[in-house]
Structures are given as structure tokens and as C-alpha cells.
Q: What sequence folds into this?
């Protein structure tokens, strides 16, 4: 084990070179670091895990640090994780294990393709098996296993939002017929109060467009992708098996989802378990229907809107235009971009299990990622921060209050703005 990880500084107390006084720190040099001060064992142990091999590829260029959203509010990044492991830190026992949101911005710039989206779940799975999981994350796991959702809500209440939608909503088990679109509503859209607002808006927009859609209601369970990224692969596989069995009971042509995390799961992961669907995020489904939407708009919103790119719709799946196409189609919307947008969009902090780790991560960051993003949104002069991920409305509304910006910025799902313009 290394005794010291810092090079010894060498500086002359008084020195003048060519008439320039460079005394003290101005002439500081460092002794050469030597290899026997470092240990490869911790890195080798991580790289031996299936999926985590690429940590060993890191050659310390530090490109990842400049784009890591956690480093902007803390001290983090793949290069720093490698360095700590190199100098004695055991990642599975370190708080660093739980701070990564798997946003993928580091992988985007890494010349060696060090893939934290695979490394972190692999190491977290070891921590899960050891029982060393932050309590709030463990609670989310337990709720998901017991109730089918991380909030611990009664499955029978999953479709209660439909009572106030103002339009009929087909529930598949009751209708017992085929539909064109099976709409996967998602957990936070079904249970969180602001999520329900978006769900009702979606139902009204679908109805106005004449979309033949149905939902699963009480049969719908969480997609499980965030739990997988947080290290509970077994729980994810259980949910995938249950959801695929439920989808298999019904006939539909297209699977439309509310959230980017569900989109990522059903598009990229469920096919590995024989769950193959024609899946679209709701913005992708609606964007080609802009010409049908425009005659339905009844008023101009007259708002300056800035849009937050969800990591799992954007960087992970390459969709940046569909949400913007919808926003630009709404009368009276002026779209203003934040400096960090599209491929370099900032993370809300909810991915990779971060949705359930805010109380943990606050001890290791100066502010929540969602708080930092709201500050950036306010700086644009926008009236509205538009989102299209069920995690984000609640996160950003809390952040608006936490940063003292109540009254300056409102948070709306894109579908809420579409619905508002139709009233």
C-alpha cells in the first residue's frame, strides 16, 4: 500500500532569475513520482468484473473531468476514480461508487472508451451483494420488489389519475381488445402529483389526435432500468420478465413511453430477454404529427422556454430534435437554449439511481445537480424550463425553490405545454 500519494515539493525561499523574483512558490518544482508508491491491485480487481474491464484503459488524460456534471458541484470523474483506486481507495467501499449518475458525458469524450455506464453497475452489484447500500436506495429496491414501484405505492392506485383526465382512457384488462398504441405511463407519471398532471395532459392530447391507445393500469410495473444501473440486476431481470409477460397478453402495434429511462430499457435491454417492441418516446411519437397538432392549438402561450435534454433520451439514444420540434410548433413559444445543451447537456442528477440518493450525495457535493441546472435555466431569462422525463418535473420544481427562484421560473413537461395551448 502506498505511503504517500503526493509528490514532495521543492522550492527556493529566495531566488532571482534574469532580474525576476521567483522566490517561494513561484519556483516550486516537484520530486518525480515513483511507481512503487502506487498499487495496481484495486484497479485490477475492478477490471476483473464483467462489464468493468474498461477502467483499466484509463490513461489519465482528464478529458472526462471537464464534462462530468458531478465534478462541477463536487470533486469527481472517472479519471479521479482511477487515480484514487491507484493510490489505495477501494471503490466498492467508497462514497464515489454512488455519485455517478451514468449520464454518459464522460464516455462521449473519452479517447480510451472508459465506460462508467458499465463499470458502475458492475461494482454496485458487488456492493448490493455485500449489503453495503445507502439506506434510501435500499428502500427503493425493497419497495420495487414488493409493490412494483420504488415509491411503495399501491399498484391498484396506478390508474387513479385517469378519473380526472377529462377524456376516456382505455385500460387493457377491462377493454379486452387490441389497440394501436400501448402507452406505458411509468411510475412517477402515475403516482407523483405533478406526474399525474402530465399523464392527464397526454391522455387529452392523444384523444384530440384520435390516437387509439390503452394503458396497463394496475398491471404496469416499473421498467427496472434505474434499479439495474444502481446495482440491482436481479431486480431488473425480475421486472423485465414480469413486464414482458404482461405486454404479451395484449395486442398493440406501438409501445409509447412517457420517460427516457423506460425508452432506454424497452429499446435496448428488453430485447435481450425476448421483449421486442416498436418503441417510441412520446415526443418521437408526436413530433411527426405536428401538422395535425397545429389546427388544434387555440391560444398563444407567449413564453420564453428553455429545454433540458434528458441524458437517456439524448446522449444515450441520440434524440435531440423531437422535443424541440414540439416546442417550436406551440404558438407563442420562444425557444432559448442553455449553454450546456444537446450532446453536452447537463444532468438532472436522477439517473443511475440518483433519484433516490439525494440525501446521500448532498454530503459530497456543494449543491444538487438539479439545483445547478435550474440556475443555468434562470440565467437564460426563460419563463419556463421544459422537460420530458418524469424524474425531472419534481426534481426541478424542488430546485427552483431551493435556489430561491420561485416566481422566476416554472417547470413544465413538454406535453403540458402542448395541452395548455390546446385549451
A:
Amino acid at each position: 500500500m502506498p505511503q504517500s500519494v503526493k509528490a514532495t515539493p521543492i522550492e527556493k525561499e529566495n531566488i532571482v532569475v534574469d532580474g525576476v523574483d521567483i522566490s517561494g512558490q513561484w519556483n516550486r518544482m516537484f520530486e518525480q513520482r515513483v511507481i512503487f508508491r502506487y498499487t495496481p491491485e484495486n484497479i485490477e480487481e475492478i477490471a476483473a468484473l464483467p462489464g468493468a474491464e474498461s477502467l483499466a484503459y484509463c490513461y489519465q488524460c482528464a478529458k472526462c473531468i471537464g464534462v462530468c456534471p458531478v465534478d462541477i458541484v463536487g470533486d469527481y470523474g472517472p479519471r479521479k476514480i482511477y487515480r484514487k483506486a491507484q493510490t489505495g481507495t477501494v471503490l466498492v467501499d467508497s462514497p464515489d461508487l454512488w455519485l455517478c449518475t451514468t449520464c454518459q458525458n464522460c464516455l462521449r469524450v473519452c479517447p480510451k472508451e472508459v465506460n462508467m455506464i458499465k463499470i458502475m453497475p458492475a461494482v454496485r452489484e458487488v456492493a448490493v451483494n455485500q449489503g453495503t447500500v445507502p439506506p434510501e436506495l435500499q428502500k427503493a429496491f425493497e419497495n420495487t420488489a414488493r409493490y412494483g414501484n420504488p415509491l411503495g405505492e399501491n399498484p391498484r392506485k396506478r390508474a387513479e389519475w385517469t378519473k380526472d383526465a377529462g377524456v376516456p382512457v382505455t385500460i387493457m384488462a377491462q377493454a379486452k381488445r387490441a389497440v394501436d398504441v400501448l402507452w406505458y405511463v411509468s411510475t412517477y407519471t402515475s403516482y407523483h402529483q405533478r406526474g399525474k398532471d402530465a399523464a392527464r395532459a397526454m391522455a387529452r392530447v392523444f384523444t384530440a389526435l384520435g390516437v387509439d391507445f390503452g394503458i396497463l393500469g394496475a398491471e404496469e410495473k416499473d421498467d427496472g432500468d434505474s434499479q439495474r444501473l444502481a446495482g440491482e440486476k436481479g431486480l431488473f431481470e425480475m421486472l423485465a420478465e414480469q413486464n414482458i409477460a404482461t405486454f404479451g397478453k395484449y395486442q398493440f402495434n406501438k409501445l409509447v413511453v412517457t420517460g427516457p429511462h423506460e425508452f432506454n430499457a424497452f429499446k435496448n435491454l428488453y430485447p435481450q430477454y425476448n421483449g421486442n417492441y416498436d418503441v417510441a418516446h412520446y415526443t418521437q411519437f408526436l413530433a411527426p404529427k405536428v401538422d395535425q397538432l397545429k389546427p388544434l392549438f387555440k391560444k398563444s402561450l407567449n413564453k420564453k422556454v428553455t429545454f433540458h435534454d434528458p441524458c437517456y433520451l439524448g446522449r444515450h439514444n441520440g434524440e435531440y430534435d423531437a422535443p424541440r420540434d414540439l416546442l417550436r410548433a406551440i404558438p407563442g413559444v420562444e425557444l432559448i437554449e442553455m449553454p450546456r445543451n444537446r450532446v453536452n447537456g447537463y444532468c438532472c442528477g436522477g439517473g443511475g439511481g440518483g433519484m433516490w440518493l439525494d440525501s446521500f450525495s448532498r454530503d459530497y457535493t456543494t449543491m444538487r445537480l438539479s439545483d445547478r441546472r435550474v440556475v443555468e435555466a434562470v440565467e437564460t431569462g426563460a419563463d419556463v424550463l421544459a422537460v420530458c422525463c418524469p424524474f425531472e418535473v419534481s426534481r426541478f420544481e424542488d430546485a427552483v425553490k431551493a435556489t430561491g427562484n420561485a416566481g422566476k421560473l416554472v417547470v413544465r413537461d413538454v406535453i403540458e405545454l402542448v395541452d395548455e395551448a390546446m385549451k
